[in-house]
Amino acid sequence: MALYRIPGRENAIHYFPEIESTMDEARNMAQKGCPAFTVVVAEQQRKGRGRMDRQWVSTKGGLYFTLVLRPDINPADCGRVNFLVSVVLANLLRKEYHIDAGVKWPNDILVDGKKIAGMLSEMATDGHRVQYLNIGIGLNVNNDPCRVEPNATTMKMLLGERVRRTTLLGRFLNLLEEAMVQMTWEQTLAAWRNLTVTLGRPVRVVTTREIVEGTAMNVDDTGALILKTTAGTTQKIIYGDCFINPS
Ligand code: BTN
Hints:
The protein is of the alpha+beta class. The chain has five helices and twelve strands. The protein folds into two domains: 2-195, Bira Bifunctional Protein, Domain 2 (BirA Bifunctional Protein, domain 2), CATH 3.30.930.10; 202-244, SH3 type barrels (Roll). Bound molecules: biotin (BTN). Residues 21-23, 45, 48-51, 54, 56, 58, 64-66, 108, 118-120, 136-138 line the site of biotin (BTN).
């Protein structure tokens, strides 16, 4: 695939054969005032970034992109958009590709316990308004991340054939645009709960400050995870990584 030519989106897709990280380029574009739904996509990233300061291995064949959004919402509600994006992506994999995708809190997409996609977001505010909310997605499509990430899977491995990434990205953007107009937070949360592989499970949550173990009980109205700790207390986790413990 040489270029991401997606009908109707020619002016909004910026393709790079190789880049440090699509997050950096998208931030530059967002700061210069690019329109919402601008997409920066790369065949390879030299410094792909994951959540919690991890690296995101970005070799040829994967789908690596950052989407610039400009939602007219309170900055405190930006987490809700991340939930919507993960619901749209998981449902796309399920409905169009018959892949049994689930969502692990907050926004990882898993298949049979293995990670197929991750999301990273970055936002800038202007007082009480969101200037931009950039959402970066790394989706394992035709790449082979399993040597460095043994707990990963790819669409090609699951389907036994290569997947056309232009079609995949085009479908995702169309569905997301539609969902952003139509879906309320209550509907998003209900859809997320239907797809979750986290709730009701014993988990270990790693935050920047601590490691907490317990049962994932719920997510609240901001998308924070409500945990019943093994010590019997209730704890709210706003940012962290969640690992499902064997029960
Ligand atoms: C995670 O699960 O830790 C999040 C991974 C996000 C990776 C994507 S790939 C496209 C965009 N550019 C980056 O450098 N990171 C995100």
